[in-house]
User: What shape does this take?
Amino acid sequence: MVVVYTIYIFDRHCECIFYTEWNRGRSPLSAERSAAAATVGGRSDGSKEPANTAHAVDGTGTHLSGDSQRPLVWPTTANSTANRVSLESPRNIAMEEEAKLVYGVAFSTRNIINKLNSKDGPQGGNPGGFMSFATNTYRLHYYESPTGVKFILTTDIAAVSMQPVLEMIYRNIYVEYVVKNPLFNVDPHTSSPIENDYFRAVLNNYIREISSTTTVA
Amino acid sequence: MEKQYKAIGEEAWKNNAEKINAELFIFTYGSLVVQLVKDYENYSAVNKQLDKMGYNIGVRMVDDMMARTSLERCTGFSATAEVIAKVGFKLFLNVIPTVANWSADAKEFSLILDDNPLNDFCELPPKAVADGLRYSNVLCGVIRGALEMMQMQTEVEYVRDVLCGDDVSEIRVKLLRMLDEEVPASDD
Amino acid sequence: MASQSQAQAQAQMHAQSLMKLDNKTSKRSNMLLEQNVSRPRRDRVGLGAFAFLFAEIIRYSQNRVLGIQDLEAKLNEIGQRVGVRMFELSMWREKTVHREMRVLQTLVFINTVVWRALFDKQADSLERSTENDDEYMITDNEPAVLKYISVPKEMSSFSPGAFISGIVEAIARCCQCPARVTSHVVPADGLPLRTVILLKFDKEVMDREKRLEAGK
Assistant: This one.
């Protein structure tokens, strides 16, 4: 049983293009969610899953079956109807700050590991094989695609190797639903957040699946 | 090494690639070129646009190739050439061009396309040949885009083309420089 | 004088090189002519190659149009040129089929022969509209060419199947049954890209049908 807390995806330009959380206690986003729920007035105190009213209004779940509990995602662009965190919002700024720190810590760790293996170079990559580190509260897992897209997953400490999971997310979810989708991501030289319903839905289902099975390949 | 890439390409094509009717693909490409010729009314502008579209395809396609194989980043340019020919072309077009004509400094090579699906059914009008239309120029862009994602800046162009009367089609790939990984902008 | 003869020589050389070119290109023509098309020369390419190409076609078209309707019209046009060629090849290969002129035969031809040639399967259904006599619907539950496409909310009315409707429109015209063909995404459970191709046949086609029906 794996408890997945968060996932961050960073593009080649060091920008966070996707973040979502599942079992994270407090975060800039969940604060937003509670606030949104509170303003709609649909929140019952003490509930662990604070009301899905905020999701219901975006009306996107219609053709994505079995997906009523969609976690919040970040970032979203201004013209997105899914936009619930406005760009000026302090929560958005807090998220941005957090993403930068996460990138920094993973990037530096990878670089040190590459260096210690005498495999560092200006082209980057992960030849040193950085896979994860743990604190006493969580484990951070790292996977970098050969094209330089970085996937960072945080889980409970017991989940030792999430490499197959991250590889699966890259190969079968990110590539299939983000890279191949013609209607997003127009310019490879600029960053754009992943705002793709299928991607979100498939990822969410996959994480729920691995969270409920006892062993991970 | 060469054999190994061939096997990787074959294996990926056989087991990991979804496939589609070749003629649908070929006609669709043809229809695009016709559209570009109509829109631009100038063959060199069409070449440029095909290259640009190819680039946009290449930067994404490389992820698809990586996702369907167990390849890692290539360590040298000669390995890169082999992967393009034996894995890339195989996986997407089901053909394998020949890698040839290496330059002395090993920074340039040619892909000889004995068989190019895009060319099937195609015959260029004399005007297009005279004005230098490179019908399959999209391939150059694809290679350039894909290599850029692997931190290689290249120049890729057609030097010979059977559709223009040459005996073979030859694409020249020239490594200009290795690109540095982007680093996060510092806050201060 | 000297320059004149030089110019002459140049012109001659130019003509020669042109002829040489012609020889070479005619070699290509001969090769194409000798090619046997009764069976496909090659079978398959990667779906990835098509998907990325199609994605780029959509992006290119998107940059040159103002709205969703224009975008669909553009994709339809690109599909039509594919349709004409597919039609010719199908007619050539399916020796048993003669050129259809009746509406129903044309529809069945599209539904089976064309779909098999393009997508390696028959379309999932063929229905007549209950409201209008001149309208028919071909449904594909999971069009392979549209795989990977997720339409963003801000362009939710966009139907990428316009490309397929272009193919169908061209084929219907080649069958002497011109129709206005549109495509519509009608998702069903688990089939987010289920696409309905709607054919509305021209009035003269329907009139001809009636005459043929009466003359039977």
